[in-house]
Amino acid sequence: MNKIMYLEFERCIGCRACQAACRECGDHDAKERNYVEYVDFTESRQTYPMLCMQCKDPACARVCPANAIQITDEGVVLSAMEEKCIGCRNCTFGCPFGIPKFDFEENKMYKCDMCYDRSKHDIAPMCASVCPSDAIRFIDFDEMQQLRRKRSQMNLVEGKKPQEGNKWDYVPEFFGVYTD
């Protein structure tokens, strides 16, 4: 996989096309594995897409007593293996982003796996392929670096300072995220 998932939260228009596309992905059983959240529902209509951040050291995998959550050679964190998952839901409580969800009917955990069957062949995940505002992109590493540099420059112009010690530090380089 030579491409990178890049999220630019401020570009999200809340259309939920990413969720609809996720439901249409081949092995998702008509369930979305990504979400669109409100920044502050009471004060703003601003939304942002929430996908699995594919953490470097994923808490969901660390707390799984059955070793049901596998990580590919490329670093993609997959949903729990059905034959190993014991339904303890430790993964749902351990994730700092609240990504893994538990299906009580199926008795298994599911989460975004970046449409691994597509992304391992450098084909954009379903959510990135339909995002009309480019809030979710599947791009080359060099393009991501350019976007980050441009965003850093804009932050300086706008007087924004980077924050230290937040949860985004756990996100690997192949998952480019821009956030204030």
TrEMBL record:
Keywords: 4Fe-4S, Electron transport, Iron, Iron-sulfur, Metal-binding, Repeat, Transport. This is 4Fe-4S ferredoxin. It comes from the Bacteria. The keyword Electron transport applies. GO terms for molecular function: 4 iron, 4 sulfur cluster binding; metal ion binding. Residues 3-33, 43-74, 76-105 form the 4Fe-4S ferredoxin-type domain. The keyword Repeat applies. SUPFAM superfamilies: 4Fe-4S ferredoxins. InterPro entries: 4Fe4S_Fe-S-bd, 4Fe4S_Fe_S_CS, ET_IronSulfur_Cluster-Binding.
